[in-house]
Amino acid sequence: MRYLLFLLIFLLLTKLKSLDISTVPFCERPLNFDGPDFIRVYEFEELHQLKLEEPNLQMFVRNMNDLTELNLDNVDLSAQGSNRSKTLANALPRLQSLSLSFCRLSGSIHPSFSQLQSLSHIDLEGNDLSSEAPHFFANFSNLVTLSLRSCDLQGNFPENVLILPKLQSIDLSDNSLLTGHLPKFPFNSSLRQLKLYNTNFRGKLPDSIGNLMFLTHLLLSSSNFIGSIPSLLANLTLIVELDLRGNSFSGSIPPFHASAVPNLEFLRLSSNLLNGVIYSSLFTLPSLQGLCLDNNHFSGQLEEFSNASSSDGPIPKSISKLPRLVYLELAANNFYGTMKLDIFQSLRNLNSLDLSDNKLSIEGDNGSFTLPNLAALKLSRCNLTEVPKFLKNQVGLKTLNLSNNQIHGSVPSWIWNSGSLYELDLSQNAVDFLEQPLLADSNQSKTVIDGGKNPSSSILGVLALRSCNLSRFPDFLKNQDILFYIDLSDNKINGRTPSWIWKKNLRI
Ligand SMILES: *[C@@H]1O[C@H](CO)[C@@H](O)[C@H](O)[C@H]1NC(C)=O
Ligand SMILES: *[C@@H]1O[C@H](CO)[C@@H](O)[C@H](O)[C@H]1NC(C)=O
Ligand SMILES: *[C@@H]1O[C@H](CO)[C@@H](O)[C@H](O)[C@H]1NC(C)=O
Ligand SMILES: *[C@@H]1O[C@H](CO)[C@@H](O)[C@H](O)[C@H]1NC(C)=O
Ligand SMILES: *[C@@H]1O[C@H](CO)[C@@H](O)[C@H](O)[C@H]1NC(C)=O
Ligand SMILES: *[C@@H]1O[C@H](CO)[C@@H](O)[C@H](O)[C@H]1NC(C)=O
Ligand SMILES: *[C@@H]1O[C@H](CO)[C@@H](O)[C@H](O)[C@H]1NC(C)=O
Ligand SMILES: *[C@@H]1O[C@H](CO)[C@@H](O)[C@H](O)[C@H]1NC(C)=O
Ligand SMILES: *[C@@H]1O[C@H](CO)[C@@H](O)[C@H](O)[C@H]1NC(C)=O
Ligand SMILES: *[C@@H]1O[C@H](CO)[C@@H](O)[C@H](O)[C@H]1NC(C)=O
Questions:
Q1: Of 290, 263, 258, 296, whose CA–CA distance to 277 is shortest?
Q2: What is the DSSP secondary-structure string of 342-376?
Q3: What fold does the segment set 364-508 form as a domain?
Q4: What is the distance between the alpha carbons of residues 483 and 475, in angstroms, rounded to a whole number?
Q5: Where in the cell is it found (predicted)?
Q6: Domain locations in the chain as residue ranges
Q7: Which of 119, 134, 347, 410 is the most exposed place for a label (fewest CB within 10 A)?
Q8: Which protein residues touch ligand 5 with a CB less than 6 Å away?
Q9: Ligand 8 pocket mutation, candidates 403, 407, 460, 508, criterion most atoms within 8 A of CB
Q10: Which residues, in sequence order, are CB contacts of 47 under 8 Å at separation 6+?
Q11: pTM of the entire structure?
């Protein structure tokens, strides 16, 4: 009967947002269970505020000897002090899965926690432990998943935990003070997910990382790794996501081939010290959705490129073999050569393209294609002489950065055709708005017709026109309600500043 009541209440709890458990009468008495020997307390996920104070954790788990899974995610356990692990260890010897994420636990994990050796799943994410990770985790030989993400961990993480034979997933991310090195990984490691981003892990990636044949996610961004990227990384058959951004990796990258990494979806290597060749095979990976090579020292005459491409362009024609590509970030490298944007026309899913700050020279296109999903186009310092014509027919563009090019004359009014432009940077181009475009204000959006043909709307937030050739204030901005940043510095604007400009909440 009690068991039924308990279950019922837990089912109700799943819909509740806030509950003070001390007011629930049945909880005033210790709970007694003689129900089935497999009991889950597992349904708190949707609760946002639940405080376990009176009865305390000890009473709560009393007589739950057979409990194998305990999930109190988001339950406020801050009142339990350091007794909680002792409580758990004594009362729940059979516990296999413990999930206490965002429970407002504080302080180090009590040594009695080391008795819970049958644990295979531990999730303590989002508690302010402000201490070292306990070394006894290395003795938890049943451990399959461990998440200590965002726990304010400090000191050196015990390497041996990373080579526990059954370990499949470990997440130590967002512990910026946590140091550590990667161990020598054994051949038969079960590891699938290794997440150490935004930590202070350091040193080189061991060649033995190639032993992690089940690895699907390797996320090491914003840490302190150095050295080269082991070529065996390009042989991890099951890899889906490889994120090494924001470290100090140097040297060249290994050749990634479709046959070796058929499942690779995201390859992010931004903001390292990488250089050398990019094999064009990189541009033929069938599953690739995101490729970020920006802010490195890649350069080229890129190997295989000249053959892959009919012109001598720096981006191989084979780029069109990436049908699933969503973003391509190649900015701030030393790629050079002349190219046309037409080579991207088959990338129907492309959402973001950034080729800025290389030594590229992008030639005009004849506007014969569109990229239906493009939201951000950044072509700063690309030696453009005109606004890319394909934008005339483009719908949904939000960010356009064409700064530092050789565009001159009047900005074509069709630049607003996408109807969604939020951020526009045309700085360092000798342009002016000779035809003042008719932009709708927010009341009229999609009804005002620009040039009698195309609808425009009012959602411009950022407009940078530094060092252009403006001779007067762009009046069409008057009705742009959400505009909050305009840079018109270093132009040749005559006359008084219009008064409407002071009515806006602007940073000029
Ligand atoms: C911890 O447990 C002991 C008895 O086991 C008790 O005396 C003490 O008050 C408890 N501390 C807290 C903070 O609950
Ligand atoms: C691991 O277990 C062994 C044997 O049970 C013990 O000697 C050792 O101290 C334990 N290590 C840690 C870090 O708890
Ligand atoms: C891995 O290999 C070692 C030695 O080769 C062996 O002792 C261990 O049991 C193996 N582990 C698994 C999970 O197969
Ligand atoms: C990677 O795998 C390919 C076959 O898929 C093999 O030819 C190559 O030798 C492997 N590379 C290394 C370094 O093991
Ligand atoms: C490129 O083509 C030339 C001749 O057409 C050939 O000699 C060279 O090996 C090719 N390079 C690559 C990397 O395939
Ligand atoms: C920029 O483009 C012009 C022609 O549009 C070309 O003459 C010039 O060489 C290009 N500059 C660079 C650095 O490629
Ligand atoms: C635009 O150029 C492509 C080749 O890049 C050509 O096939 C197409 O016919 C041209 N379209 C127009 C309208 O000139
Ligand atoms: C446009 O790109 C340049 C070069 O990458 C950058 O410095 C600038 O901040 C960008 N403009 C905006 C509005 O973000
Ligand atoms: C939009 O409409 C509201 C009420 O209809 C009005 O108060 C507001 O001034 C209008 N905004 C503009 C920019 O015309
Ligand atoms: C700048 O604008 C003036 C007219 O205001 C025009 O005469 C001049 O040619 C423009 N400069 C460039 C580089 O386009």
A1: 296
A2: GGGTT-TT--EEE--SSEEEEEP--S----TT--E
A3: 3.80.10
A4: 13
A5: Cell membrane
A6: 364-508
A7: 410
A8: 303-304, 307
A9: 403
A10: 13, 14, 16, 17, 18, 19, 74, 75
A11: 0.83
